[in-house]
Amino acid sequence: MTSVRVQEVTAKTAPAHLVDHTLVSEMVVPGVRYEKRPAKTRDGKVAEGLYNAWICLDNPKQYNSYTTEMVKGVILSFRAAAMARDVNAVVFTGVGDKAFCTGGNTHEYAQYYAGNPQEYRQYIRIFNDMVSSILACDKPVICRVNGMRIGGGQEIGMACDFTIAQDLANFGQAGPKHGSAPIGGATDFLPVMVGCERAMFSGTLCEPFSAHKAYRLGIVSEIVPALKINGKFVPNPTVITDRMLDEYGRIVHGEFKTGEELSKGQAQLKQGQIDLSLLDEKVEEYCAKLLVTFPECMIKTIEELRKPKLNSWNANRENSRAWLALNMMNEARAGFRAFDEGTRETGREIDFIALRQALAKGTPWTPELIESLIPKAAK
User: Which three-class secondary structure state does DSSP give residue 149?
Assistant: First the structure.
């Protein structure tokens, strides 16, 4: 009866024409999927006329790394979702089960932006707009982590309001290993979310960590198993999932196993299949919980809770943009080339020792120096 009464009131009072506040009429961008899926209640019933917007990075062959065009697509998608009156929540994810996102497309970086700081400065303008579009979205944003969330992928993921991950996913930064700095959000968000010491460890050493550790650190709201062996879900077998301390009293819950235990876990991985159904169930559960709230009270609450991240981001993004552009003339120019041209045999990192030795002698950054640092196959 209540639903019928609401429909009667709506029919009498709703304006005949609604103003369109979106920027584009159609969302067709290569590499980004935008779709509205019917919103459901906790008991699985469809809430007629209401939706959740799914924004999916669709570049699985390159681990959902974002190209320049994809960045534009993400901005437009978040704007469309924010303006859609019938959208309850936004789910931000990637296609496949290997990666949510591994950051910027290093092939494009190496082939076009390396050595072109003026062009990269333009690119970072829209990259910044992408992060800001997430932080300014007028709907709650859930990051559905279907696989690796590394580098710039970690940064756009941390800009979201909630993170729900399958427990085979890895998290972390990569900048100082590949010629950049994690100043596209990580240096802003990590200290707020995990504290200065742990942020320092993640941002500088670039060691990936598990979804279980991400949950322990507080940058993930929920984790669910994704590995099925003999028809049953099992936790990530390469990670210590028991809550325990090592001989030094350090927490090892969520750390990767080593030695023989790691080998056993990797063998188990090969035996099973990846199934993301529990991940989807958990995402739908969150969307359903958000559905039964006052929408304006919800977004005001979210806006206030975003402020620690937003304030840090707004304070630093412009000077970070300038530095990133200039860095394309030296370390980024070498690092992105090494990653793009490297192979499993040669590796994808420069010779860091040789670089430091050269700089210690006052060697200038020249094309010859960069060429000498790029990994080469053995002759």
Answer: strand
